[in-house]
Amino acid sequence: MHPDSQLDAAYWQQRYLTGQTGWDAGSITPPLLDYFRQLGLPDERRILIPGAGRAYEAEYLHRQGWRKVWVADVAAAPLRDFQQRVPDFPAAHLLQQDFFALKPTPPFDLLVEQTFFCALEPSQRPQYAQQCAQLLRPGGTLMGLLFDTEFSQLGPPFGGSREEYRSYFAPYFDFVHFETATNSLPPRRGRELFICLKKKQPSDS
Ligand SMILES: C[S@@+](CC[C@H](N)C(=O)[O-])C[C@H]1O[C@@H](n2cnc3c(N)ncnc32)[C@H](O)[C@@H]1O
């Protein structure tokens, strides 16, 4: 977390406790669901969902049989909600931690982005891309959704454009997919990018 950020754990915890969670879709969103469905059978791949909130993605993956799924969030309330919904999810995989302090020991195969990037101070975006790269193995994947729109009110959420985002990820990732999502939730339709980025291999130039 940025030391000067007002968007600290207490801020997010308060948003959950007061029900100010307009971002919460109440279930896994269609673009992520479609992506997960083509991952194949559950295996040993290590998956991290940072800024996961109530973590509907982790619930889906867990129920499908994926066992190496971790959830990270600074706020306690959504993790507690998740634990009540999915009591057999391993408690040790629920990390109440700052994303920027997570360690790649061992590294992850897949990182899932769903309305976490837009919740961070925009000044943290280069650091977000760098930390995603640090947490992934070479060839590992960062996938998910990024808003490709500006918001009229002061964030969070903070908006942005695909051109801006490209500059953050290009030093560390190859771009497999970086296009307007075709199956967004109706209020987000045409306003978000579906991204699938592969961490560069050491031999890549
Ligand atoms: C807009 S919410 C999105 C939650 C969830 N991904 C969803 O779509 O419902 C942003 C989440 O990021 C968490 N968060 C904010 N800063 C964080 C940080 N530095 N490390 C980990 N989690 C953080 C907040 O507590 C909140 O749950």
UniProtKB/TrEMBL annotation:
Pfam families: TPMT. SUPFAM superfamilies: S-adenosyl-L-methionine-dependent methyltransferases. Keywords: Methyltransferase, Phosphoprotein, S-adenosyl-L-methionine, Transferase. The keyword S-adenosyl-L-methionine applies. GO terms for biological process: methylation. It comes from the Bacteria. One of its GO terms (molecular function) is methyltransferase activity. InterPro entries: SAM-dependent_MTases_sf, TPMT. This is SAM-dependent methyltransferase. It comes from Hymenobacter glacieicola. The lineage of its organism: Bacteria, Pseudomonadati, Bacteroidota, Cytophagia, Cytophagales.
